[in-house]
Design brief:
The protein is mainly α. The chain has one domain. It is built from six helices and two strands, in the order αααβααβα. It is globular and about 35 Å long.
């Protein structure tokens, strides 16, 4: 996987069928603080995109405990962890469908459960 560059932004926007805010692009490309900490600013979307496009070990989200290692807030309940896992999976699937290279994400330890999960997001 190559360093995240400006050319990927248009591909990401097309895959997700959204237009990213300037603060989201700045966070994805440069690592600057994402949009304000208020809700509905696109911070989690930018975080998920950056997480998927950054090189590293496979992301293992086999359980709520494992998901805690990757969520974008310091404390959250089971409902947020479940939502975050599914939200990341939806972006991951759209990236895969668009041919965007990402870190591998393992939502289940066995491949058949992984495939079923991703096909029903």
């Amino acid at each position: 996987m190559e360093k995240i560059g400006g050319e990927i932004i248009a591909t990401v926007e097309q895959a997700l069928q959204i237009e990213l805010y300037a603060c989201q692009k700045d966070y994805i490309l440069n690592g600057y603080l994402p949009c304000t900490n208020e809700k509905c600013t696109g911070k989690t979307t930018a975080y998920c995109i950056k997480l998927l496009l950054t090189e590293g070990e496979p992301i293992k989200m086999w359980s709520f405990e494992a998901t805690t290692n990757y969520i974008d807030v310091s404390s959250s309940g089971v409902n947020y962890k479940d939502w975050f896992r599914r939200y990341l999976a939806s972006i991951y699937k759209k990236f895969m469908d668009a041919g965007i290279e990402t870190r591998k994400v393992e939502f289940y330890q066995d491949q058949s459960s992984q495939d079923f999960f991703l096909n029903h997001i």
